[in-house]
Amino acid sequence: MPDARSIETTQPFRLTAPSPARTRSRRGRRLERLHVFFKSRRLFNALLIAIVLALYTASINFGLIWDDPKWYQQGAGQSLGQLFTSLDTYQFYRPLAIGLNRLLVSPTGVVNAPLAHLIQVAAHLIATLAVVPLLRAFKIDDRAARISAILFAIYPLSYQAVAWQAPQQPIATLAVFVSILAADRFLHLNRVRYLIASVVTYAFALLFQESALPFVWVFGWLAASHWTRTKGSRSFWPLIHLALAVLYFSIWLNVPRQAGVTGRGLDARVLAYVVQSIAFPMASAGSSVLINWPVATLTLVFAAIAVLLLLGAWRARGWRAALFSGAWIAAGVLPIVVGLSWSYVRIGSRLLYPASLGIALVWGSCIAGLWTGRLWQRVLSIGLAAIVIAISIGQWNQLQRLYLMGTQHLDQTIITLEKSSDQNLLFINYPDRIELLPPPYPLGNWGLILTPVVQDLSDYAVAKVGYSARTTSLSAFRAGTDQRGAWQYAVAMRGEDTPAEKLYEVAAQADRVLITDYLPDGQLRLREVGSIRSSNAATSFIASFEGAAELIAVTTDSSINLTWRSLKPLSADTTIFLHLWKDGAFVSAFDGDSLGGLIPPAIWQPGDEIIDVRRVDSNTLPAGRYEVRVGLYRRGDGVRYPAFDANGQRLPDDAVTIGTFDAP
Questions:
Q1: Structural domains of the chain in order of their starting residue, each with its CATH number
Q2: Mean pLDDT (whole number) for 596-605
Q3: How is 613-644 classified by DSSP, letter by letter?
Q4: From CA 370, how far away is CA 98, in angstroms rounded?
Q5: What pLDDT does residue 115 have?
């Protein structure tokens, strides 16, 4: 009789369904494979590096934006010691920031903008890599810490702080991180050199930017969490950091500063702006509706969301994660709420950078807590993470495109200024501030401050190449109104609306007039529209119009340049027509006032020559040869001015044919 083993081996093979236990085991292995990336410290750090570089590498080429380029010259001629005592140029007490800025300026006054941007990106990158070990020092579990690191890297309200070359928040925050990590090493290894390193880096953070001041409490928390290990006199080491903070604050209070920036805090709008930054996914998703809500209501709604998030972090990861994230957020936003005005805060999302670790942690704790629950909770965790990441990346993309467009326009302007260093240029409708439409959040101004009107455009060229043309900036709201109305961004231009008479007066003092076009694809274009000069008393002309004006010269290259001589005043509704004809048939009209629509012929001054530069985009026309006809007419009745050639013969249709051009 065969034994049991032989019977078992002779049973026929059957295809059977896997047991539920085996199915769960396979699912577990798949989840384990999903986690493997997060279990490797090197691979995870590589992921963080890739994220930050992907988001911010392009900003290295943004050049100087927003700031007064001359601001980098603060403290010029002073020794390092004098930077700590000569306070008359300070708005805040930031001697080390002033020192760094001085290092970025060459002896000829050129600012190394790419290096300034690189320093900002590097500071954010290293701070991102420090998030996990820092949170680990406060006994935050790895899953929550790593999710928080990713959210810290991509937090959308940090974009201005990293992509703009001037903010001190990323460097000061990084110094605080390093100081905390050094203190943690001191507690674990009991080596005084780490305590010295912690004190020095915290002093550096304070002297670089005052946003480091409120985080002095962190060292007390760190000491308390290791009380049994450091009991005795060594338990009081955080008093050194506290003494530094008190000394710094006493100096900071007595520093001269610009009125209207600090000292006018406790504004309800600032508080609402701050709690909005915590509930940013909800605030962004409902921006179109919430933008019409009262500030008090927004404050209550966003504060309620923030409290729910903190309670969720408490339930998911315990009191430590919730309390630490709440305390960090409070320390990060305290200077904003207490000491800054709304007019300053609303354009400064960079101010939220110091609080971003706490904001990332509260969201990271909630997401990590849901992941450890049941299947539906894991699905919710994935969905919540996807929403937060999608909103962050989407807003980064919006801001990146806007910054690229704006800084490329500034680069082209600097090239023009560099090539025209011996001239005086008048810029019309140049952008000061460009904002996203629709705004991504109900509170604040969101976009790019490119070239504030308080700055001369020439300052940017001097800071980049060392020399520049002389510049004047004015705005004429009537020019390009339709363009700007259809543009995908909102724009505030440099200067108030200027009447045509004033524009004529200023243009007559400039060598060239350039206007900014706001193109349908969301780009900007700098376009020369002409100039005004005194007549050279030449007698020849191409055509005369009722003895009031003469067309004396025409050139055609990439544009059509018409030179007019004013003989006597024209009627108020006079304008210019430029028509294209092909094979004897009218094709298109480019009518309008001179200099890009800025200067009506009615205000031409007798004795002046007006060079009117008109752009005709041949790419929009069918291929072929076109005849160009020019003249003057009255808008009111459409009647053309009688036109005569140099021999006194009246021209057909009172239009002068000035030449032809070919469309490809």
A1: 403-532 (no CATH), 540-663 (2.70.50.60)
A2: 95
A3: EE---GGGS-SEEEEEEEEEEETTT-PBPPEE
A4: 46
A5: 96
